[in-house]
Structure formats: structure tokens, C-alpha cells
Amino acid sequence: AYQKWICNNKVDFIPAELPGHGIRINEPFSQNIDDLSKEFAEEIAEIVAEGSNIEFSLFGHSLGAVIAFNVACSLKKYIISPVCLQVAGRHAPQAEDPSSYKTSMGKEALIEEIMSYGYTPKELIENEEYRNFVLPIMFGDYVLGESFKYNNQNISVPVLAYYGRNDMGADKNVMRNWKDITTDDTFHIKGFDGDHFFLLDKDNNFPDILADDMLRFTKNKNSYETAVQKTFRYERGMI
């Protein structure tokens, strides 16, 4: 989904693949979001240590939003901080999950949840072979999401929240709560036409907007070389 973003001429987008997905399909799923976040934080710390004046942000969509937040918290160990946190399509860490689906309901009940996001064609879900491949992956992601526990963690950088105007699970009111997880005074929120997957709509030009917003917080706002955008690759329900 983010492959085309890599070609952006404003910042470097670096997609992060979750275990059990894509090129990491043969790896076991992560079941603990804290462990996963620490792994990503360690990799980011290594990249920053190798570079010179590297500035970066963390972006996450849906489950990726809380992963990005958790990574930002984990980076405190290395005395490293993103210039801002950019999130989309998910309720804030301290808020109650509005989804009616829980993994205790089993994998088959997950089908209705997937369909509610409106992106996966019904014909695919009804295909048994496809369904048998997809459901374990989706189920594993929900298990990972449920492993997150909010213990009053916060960050101290600007937060930028984005939402699809037709995303019933993460509308403006839901995304506005992200302002409470930062001690920084800067919080911005932007709405776009579309549903949960508004960021994939070419008409929204979301990658450029994401890059421009991030660059506002870098020290050298005109330098492509010093602006590194870390994009955490995850869209719940996207196949």
C-alpha cells in the first residue's frame, strides 16, 4: 500500500513491515505490542546513530497509530524523539476501543468487522481460499492490538491527527482525543473525503500533505536530505 510513497521527492518514506505480513510472511505474528515497539525503536536508534542531523516523524494508520505512539515512548530510552507524531484512523491510546469485535469472539466473527470498513470486496471474503489466508493474519493483528495497555504514557512532541469524514470508527471527535497524549502545546487535526482508507485515495494527495506537515517541524525545512519520514506500515482491514 505504501510502495508508491517511497518515490516521494520531499521526504524519505521508510515503511515498516510487521512480522507475518508481506516479505515477513514466514515469521510468527507479534503478540505483544510493547516488544514490537521496542524492536522498531532499536532499529530507528541505529539509523539515527549512523546519520548526521537526521530528523524524522512517526506515522501510523489504524493499529499502526498506536504502534507509532508506543514506538515514540520506547525511543525515550535512547534520548531520541521524532519531530512530531502523525496518526490516522484510530482512537487515542487512552480512549476505549469503539469496536464491538473482540478476539474472544473468534476468527469467523471477524468477517463482519472487516466488511464494516468497506474496502475489501465481498466477493473476496466469500472466497474460501482467500478467506482462509486472510483471517489468520487479520486475527493476529487484532490480538496484537488488544495487547496494548495504556498506563498514562505520554510524549512531548507535536501531534497531527488525520481522519476520513466517513470513517465512523475514527471521525473528527474520535481523533481529537489524541491531543491528550502529548505535553506539547501543538496539536493539529485534518479531515479528508473518504472512509477508513482515505489515505489511499489519490485525490487526497495524502503522502505530500503528510510530508509537508512533517517538514514544518524540522529545523531545516527546505532540506530533503535531513528529513526522514518513518512510516509504520499498517492499515487494519486493508488487504
What can you tell me about this protein's structure?
The protein has helices at 33-50, 63-74, 110-116, 122-125, 128-146, 172-175, 206-215; strands at 12-16, 55-61, 85-88, 159-164, 187-192, 227-232. The protein is an alpha/beta fold. The termini are close together. The model is unreliable at 223-228 and 233-239 (pLDDT under 50).
Low-confidence stretches: 223-228, 233-239
Structural class: alpha/beta
Widest β-sheet, arrangement of strands:
1-6-2-3-4-5
Which oligomeric state applies? Answer: single chain
Shape: globular
How would you sum up the major sheet?
A: 6 strands, parallel
Strand content: 5-15%
Q: What pattern of helices and strands is seen along the backbone? A: EHEHEHHHEHEHE
* Spatial extent as radius of gyration: 17 Å
Helix content: 25-40%
Task: Calculate the mean pLDDT score and round it.
Answer: 89
**Helix segment tally:** 7
Distance between the termini: 9 Å
Question: What's the β-strand tally?
Answer: 6
Topology:
Layout: E1 12-16, H1 33-50, E2 55-61, H2 63-74, E3 85-88, H3 110-116, H4 122-125, H5 128-146, E4 159-164, H6 172-175, E5 187-192, H7 206-215, E6 227-232
Parallel strand pairs: 1-6, 2-3, 2-6, 3-4, 4-5
Helix pairs in contact: 1-2
Summed up:
This protein is of the alpha/beta class. The chain is 31% helix and 14% strand. Helix 1 crosses helix 2 (63-74).
